[in-house]
Amino acid sequence: DSNDDIEDVSLFDADDDVSRRSKKSKIRHPVASFFHLFFRVSAIVVYLLCELLTSSFIACMVTIILLLSCDFWAVKNVTGRLMVGLRWWNQVDDDGRSHWVFEARKVSAQGSKTSSEAESRIFWLGLITCPMIWVIFAFSALFSFKVKWLAVVVMGVVLQGANLYGYIRCKVGSRKNLTSMATNYLGKQFLRQVRFLGVQKPS
């Protein structure tokens, strides 16, 4: 279930006018922006440096899982709502059936938006980059036969991948196909490149 009247929050690129760009460059929620990156980056740093800092695998595993859990809760319940006006959750109806809900903040009557372009870039950059890093860690642990670390890495992929999937569903809407979204995006980028080359071509 998703709302049709949703705010157009920037996902990959910004198409706002130059006059609006200066207003949208300000970070309106600095604490939320900080913690949006703090927990997930800290989990990656601890994973990379834990063998140098301590020989206790249990201590490293517990620390990383705690950081990943804090990140999952903060991104799902706080930073997504404040920074880009998106939220997703699961609810159970009276019949016991589970429903996933994906929502985006409605545009106000004046057409103003409360999220800034700077916050949107920070949000999506952290949301997309960190799960990709955990996927790389997963392949590295698998091919290097570090079986004990595989469970920790899979936890990172699952928790951060769940938030990434949920917020992409919020952005594009449950009625839209993710494949068509990617195709449309690549098509727009191709047309931009063609237009740019056409302008640069000497007459």
From TrEMBL:
It is found in: Membrane. One of its GO terms (biological process) is protein secretion. The chain crosses the membrane at residues 30-49, 55-75, 122-143, 149-168. Its main location: membrane. It comes from the Eukaryota. InterPro entries: TVP23-like (IPR008564). It is a multi-pass membrane protein. The keyword NADP does not apply. GO terms for cellular component: Golgi membrane. Belongs to the TVP23 family. This is Golgi apparatus membrane protein TVP23 homolog. It comes from Stercorarius parasiticus.
